[in-house]
Amino acid sequence: MTEIDKQKVPNRMFVCDPGPFPKANFYVDPQNHFTLVATDPPALKKLLTSDIFSVATAFINGEFTVRGDIFSAIRFFRTRHHPSFSQWWFTLAAKLHAAAANQFAGKRSARHNIQFHYDRSNEFYGQVLDSRMIYSAAYYKHPDESLEDAQVEKLERICRDLELRPRQRFLDIGCGWGALVLFAAETFRVNAVGCTLSHNQFEYARNLVREKGLESRVTILEGDYRDLRGRFDKIASIGMFEHVGLSHLGEYFRKMNALLEDDGRLLNCGIVRPENVSDDPETLFIQTSVFPGGQLVHLADVFREAEKAGLHVLAMEDLRKHYAMTCRAWVARLQANAQSCVNLVDEVTYRTWVLYLAGSALSFEDGHLDLAQLTLNSQKQSRLV
């Protein structure tokens, strides 16, 4: 972190008392993986006895800094005993927040929520992502593979799983900065349409299409997927349906089926929760500071609503380990480009993204989050709009 170098913290092993009355403003992990530096001893005392939501808020507001391994620091706070009332209160707040946000989510709020996260700065995301600006899990053939190569492998796998053929009509829902539609058009010769609610992504992707001279085969739309018309042979939805929410999941899959040609194919890849994982104070932090309006569902919900909408599941793949490695790669790029990131956005945004991406990596590694990729085809005896 940028401020840590200003702190006069000794390099020798020293563990301040993590009990009720710490006598220093810093805490050194016994394994020497990280050091926490607060403004003063009372601030450190409060930090070490706080719930996880308050700790996260204090971190992004610069009330303490982490020197060393951010992942070990997050594990440290996750495994500490948290005040039971605060834990209960923030868990309840997360559940109520998610229920309200998704029950009344309309197109206007969906646009606002997407722009809150994605319209920070294209240049900022350029400091974090690979050269194609892909903001979803890469596919690592081996752990030492570069982020760049792993993202290209992911694009190729999506196109192969969809069995894309020349001149087919291909739709990418939540197309981001356009990497998949451009790759599919260039490599598999499809006629591609990408759709995004982010204005920054729309402008970036549209300009890229022009630069590559692909206007005849690639169209970028700025708008809500619910407003799309037409029929497509193949559809990809990568890292998008986390924004849909449980109460709108059926509507989402019915729309996907309505957009597909007879026996068309949908590849739906998104984050889901294991059945034994529910909202907690970390969820509230993500909802309020990172992804407003987002809600993670269980895999059973996805199967149920997809099949009710008339879609048939052909295959399912668990990609959570790949997302864990991707998040770690993004954190490494964030930290390597820390000052540039702060200059492009601000210190709070930089700290928020470091914390949420590092925490996400650990959640994937520990099995608290899954990444499910489902390949489905359209069953037109149940065409619902």
CATH fold node name of the largest domain: Rossmann fold
Beta fraction: 15-25%
Spans of at least 5 consecutive residues with low confidence: 1-21
The CATH level-2 architecture of the largest domain is identified as 3-Layer(aba) Sandwich
Rounded mean pLDDT is: 86
- Strand-pairing-aware structural class: alpha/beta
Structure description:
This protein has about 375 residues and is an alpha/beta fold. It folds into two domains: about 5-80, no CATH class; about 105-380, Vaccinia Virus protein VP39 (Rossmann fold, 3-Layer(aba) Sandwich). The chain has 15 helices and eleven strands. The chain has helices at about 40-50, 50-60, 70-80, 85-105, 105-120, 120-130, 145-160, 180-190, 200-210, 250-260, 280-290, 300-310, 320-335, 340-345, 345-365, and strands at about 25-30, 35-40, 65-70, 170-175, 190-195, 220, 230-240, 260-275, 295-300, 310-320, 370-380. The strands form two sheets. Strands 4, 5, 6, 7, 8, 9, 10 and 11 form an eight-stranded mixed β-sheet that branches. A three-stranded antiparallel β-sheet has the order 1-2-3. Helix 10 (about 250-260) packs across helix 12 (about 300-310). The model is unreliable at about 1-20 (pLDDT under 50).
How is this structure best summarized?
Helices cover 46% and strands 18% of the residues.
